[in-house]
UniProtKB/TrEMBL annotation:
Keywords: DNA-binding. The lineage of its organism: Bacteria, Pseudomonadati, Pseudomonadota, Betaproteobacteria, Neisseriales. SUPFAM superfamilies: Winged helix' DNA-binding domain (SSF46785). One of its GO terms (molecular function) is DNA binding. It comes from Neisseria cinerea. Pfam families: Rrf2 (PF02082). This is Rrf2 family transcriptional regulator.
Amino acid sequence: MYLTQHTDYGLRVLIYAAINDDMLVNIGTIAETYGISKSHLMKVVTSLVKGGFLHSVRGKGGGLRLAAPPDCINIGAVVRHLEPMQLVECMGPNNECLITPSCRLTGILSGAIKSFFTYLDGFTLQDLLDKPTYDLLYEPKIPIVTKN
């Protein structure tokens, strides 16, 4: 099992916004920082805004900020919102598998997904923030001037 790039980028955006919580952040800067596609990131951000994880401020000087404090944003909830957890055909709406009525695979995989999310539910965005990540992602508003 793996998470899609969409979910990976979504978690990265939230980490970036959390670390730079003293200002509005913009998609271009986030894309440049991570070296990822701005157009793809726009789709991710739209989903995060719709899911209530980010707040978007439009207009000149606008940008993005977290919709809640980092300790209130649950990682399991973010992944549930972003990730289509259809591991096999029978878990989706277009199931045409012949053995579905007697197959036990769906139940087993559903249990695995439940365990996966139970684990993720034990973490918040705050748990992803540490000093090394802060040092890599923080964008100071005022340049630091050193005296010689």
